[in-house]
User: Fold these one by one.
Assistant:
Number 1:
Amino acid sequence: MNENGTNETDQLLRNLGFPLLRVHHSYSHYDFVTPNRRILVIGPMGSGKTEFTSRVWRDSKIALKKKGRAVAMTSGKGIDRRQVFVVRASLDKSRFPDYPDDALAFRGGYERCGKFIGSAHDSFELEMLLAENPTVGTWIIDETAFFDERIAYLIADESARRGICFICPTLVLNFRKEIFNQTARLLLENATDVFPLTAYCEHEDCLQDSLYTYRYYQVDGEECPALYFDPLIIIGGDRAKSDGKEPNYCTRCDIHHYLPGKEYTFFTLKPLGELAARGNIAPLMAELNALSGNISESRLYQSLKARYVDCEEPRPIQMNALLVPCIAERALVYLYAEQNLLSAEQVHYIVKELALDHEYLSLRLSDNRRPLEL
């Protein structure tokens, strides 16, 4: 509780611009009676969002055994809210590869859902699943923010029209501690309830509550924080990785959530992209060339050194961000796929002239829904 009498979670939600919602701080058996609910289950990676919704699945097995008045209370307009269907984002299929195909999987285990589980690539495929399962009254849509923006309005419409309840375990903040994307923002606007989950900060010296997802890489046993302009979406499993091209995730408090390169991104990288968009590509090429072949000559190195080495309170771990491979490629993905500042022709030219990593670029551009043949 802070000096104004507001706890940390309430303050976070207020800062994110949440409307007035029923904020729940503990779990009781799921309410299958109340219709029209659009429930967000939010928190950092590893906070138990999917495990939380697996309890709803287990509760439904009990509720479906009820008869008489209980059936009338949970049904209407052709649906039964005790019937639960789980939808996974197609983008996230590589998570938990060792589990059965019909598993609602989380880090502590899984629930077998049989025919009541499916995957969808976008809101149109979700709409097809809704049509194919017209009596299902409760839908769990895992990682909802991975879907297109239309899903927020599809959920709101189906909820209002038929009394369907939707449960959306999803990231709201990305590894940059910013709203994940426009879909996340629209889900917030259309929600009726929110369950915020936290976790212990996973730094070895800390037991503070964590609200944030931290992305880092392992290079020769060193923890290397992801740069601010690291590709926004990187699809992969939840297993630890020692490949400097593949990230690891954990939850971290504000003190131990390292995010180098934010100032550089807005002081240098994005302005260079804007120059390139206006036809002057040479300054960007020079910086990307330094990032690719001689990092100590780059403006990124100069920026990090000034902020984290040549200062009153040095934080050398922030400099480890420069140990990861493909920094020029990451910057290019940011400028093209996220900021939309470069044309496809400019990307092809830069990749060819600087001999950048085709495989890495193709994979990350595909992850961020801007695929290019390189």
Number 2:
Amino acid sequence: MPLPPDVIDGLLRENERHECSVDQEMCVRLVAVADLPTRFGAYQVAAFTHPFDQKEHAAFIHGNVFEAERVPVRLHSECLTGDAIGSLRCDCRDQLTEALETIGKMDRGIVLYLRQEGRGIGFTNKIRAYQLQDQGYDTVQANEILGFRPDERDYGVAAHMLRSLHVRSIRIMTNNPSKIADLTQHGVSIVGRIPMSVMLNEHNRQYLEVKRKKLGHLLALEQSDDLVDPTGPSTR
């Protein structure tokens, strides 16, 4: 059962009255909700806007999550090269597809799509970082050379989106302990973790190794010796 029309109307009215102040950098407003049939199942899409930086974020909702507990939630940061083009330098598209497929088979769940390209450094700087990686630097070193932290993302927007949907507690789909810590700091009740699969190929092995060794991601790469052939049949 999706979010009922009366619940959607109530949420939209509630957000019309919500005023973001200039010092609330992570403040967003729910502005529209619509049905979205997908190849992964029946979803609804909710559009959120930030009144100051003009970024638009999305929540892809399966089932009725209003006032629900233990809701499976995936936080997915935008990756144009991976999500749209199918880049093999990262695992972003694999994780997005896995999250949508998994949640589509559940009673309820949410994929939050956040406009935080390149771990928060933006598209142009991500490509600059790619150039540095082509010269032999890893992802962390490339960010630092460009003057950024290894990960510039902040999940306050995600926390606000979950509060706007009246989600009481979540089971987060992630391999990233920092994401759990950040959300908890922003007041999200996390009652469990759902691990994500690791899809290795010859182009993303170093990227995933750096995630594990330098960023603390919970990846069992030593158990994934068989590389995925990106040109072969799907393993899903």
Number 3:
Amino acid sequence: MPAALVFAAAPLEPTARLAARLAGLDSPSVIAADDGATTALAFGLTPDLVIGDLDSVAASTLEQLRRRQVPVETLPRDKNATDGQLAIQRALESRPSELFLVGFLGGPRLDQALANVLLLTTIETPTVLLDARNECRLLRPRTPLTWTADPEEVISLIPLATTVDGVSTAGLRWPLRDEPLYFGDTRGVSNEPVEAQVTVQTRAGLLLVTRHFPL
């Protein structure tokens, strides 16, 4: 199955890097949560579905969606999950190979950003949460993550469990060799690539792997 791309409504800088990242996806299904539809359209993508209570969607966006015959599913404001979470659930119904979440970070709402990061713990499908200058994935035990590093990127490993055991890395300036990282501790923050390929793996626990691109 192709990847799925979900847009939420957090403010987003349309950097060339992010545009190229999204353009590199091979015919993903596109679902927008509420005013995430505006962001999707700004990147030249027509959503396959827009879902939400529509409390923040501009009239001009709704008109574009109408002209393009995009299905819009209007939800009540009173509900037990955010529009973003419900859009993710809808995207997962097609069993995509990967899930990319855009517009889930930033903006004035710290609570929304934190909740969206923690949503990764509920998703079994490989998922990338990204904005203009950051990407993050949730690394599960015994599933090594390897990528080609940008020379200037900053890499952080943030435990989302009391202890993440057996953390090992390759290609980083400050390596870890089968070591623990502890919830609330900053030991894994702000590392740097020293090789073209970087690998992170763990033996137990949930580990958030973040990549920051300063340029």
